Sequence to fold (432 residues):
Amino acid sequence: MNPITTQQLLNALEWRYATKVFDPGKKIPADLWQALEHALALSPSSYGLQPYRFLVIHDAAKRAELLPHSWNQKQVVDCSHYVVFTGRTQMTEADLDRFLTLTSRVRNIPTETLSAYRGMMMGDLVNGPRGKIAHEWATRQAYIALGNLMTCAAVLGVDACPMEGFVPAEYDRVLGLGNSGYASVVCCALGYRSANDKYAGLTKVRYPTTDLIKVV
Amino acid sequence: MNPITTQQLLNALEWRYATKVFDPGKKIPADLWQALEHALALSPSSYGLQPYRFLVIHDAAKRAELLPHSWNQKQVVDCSHYVVFTGRTQMTEADLDRFLTLTSRVRNIPTETLSAYRGMMMGDLVNGPRGKIAHEWATRQAYIALGNLMTCAAVLGVDACPMEGFVPAEYDRVLGLGNSGYASVVCCALGYRSANDKYAGLTKVRYPTTDLIKVV
Fold:
């Protein structure tokens, strides 16, 4: 483990901002994008279940179709890579078994050794309290991935804009998610800031750390 | 902007895991923790509103009191820094004005220039559709902060364990959040892995990127 310095991290986080105007001519190089996809896949999630899928919208026609359902925010069409985060609409026994089969294979252990873990997840996410709010639970996991992606982009020098201002039902329709078991929950535009984005130079607005963080 | 290399980032993300056993004797140095607090405060949030507070539980007696309400997960008492993320229970006009007053001061602009922004937030988070799910909306913002914090910890070589397995109502009681307007939503233990944590050596389980990420 070869950590970066605190200054390097904080510089990156100070440098990042919710990019309002992307330079449509600047694309994220393929190797950098591949690393960001890898980073996204490495996001932590509850029980490790990864109850989401990430849609990268390359098709210009689709992006244009999404624009009016995105409060007409131009980042949708101007950014280099536009990611729609989707979350599982419910959690089923099959979801758990798919994950446990993968775990068993990757770690080379019999699935039977995972039966207590399976029981815990069943009693929580399928039949338990969180089963009733499974889509919301999945949404929260997608937000962890969003937080991870934005920080990863920042340390790699890639600009990003998180986007909650869109109409999920319309996105689901345009992206054909109807019966997929996934629904769109949040989006993130990535690429490079335009030299004309006046928001790039604004001072960040944050409550004092003493207000935000309390020691108990 | 001085980005880190993709390899350095991916090494950190591969190195991190949900730490099950912390070394109770190893504390995060003060300067490193200060940087993590700063990083946490720099988390992106919807409209920039930061509808959360982070409680850092140093008091050993409080941690012991939280343990039985945390599925008895020992990370709560053994980790170096234990953070409880709380989210605003509702959004009020006063929340918006507090934020706009701060914005006006930090950016040295009259609050009147922010009236359209204020109207948009009012129509969304106070009187609009998201007003009805304001605590859930705040929770999602806290999850962005959680994702950010875990990635920041990883690149700085600090171990972490996100924790959803706790009883929010009991946490709120123990932490005296009753009438504060904030409620606990998720936690994160930070510190250093014990040499005895057998989970540290396990292969990460992730669906293939081709399953998780779809190009449209």
Summary: Chain B has a mean pLDDT of 97. Chain B touches chain A through 77 residues (CB under 8 Å). Strands of chain B lie at 52-56, 81-88, 159-163, 182-191, 213-215.
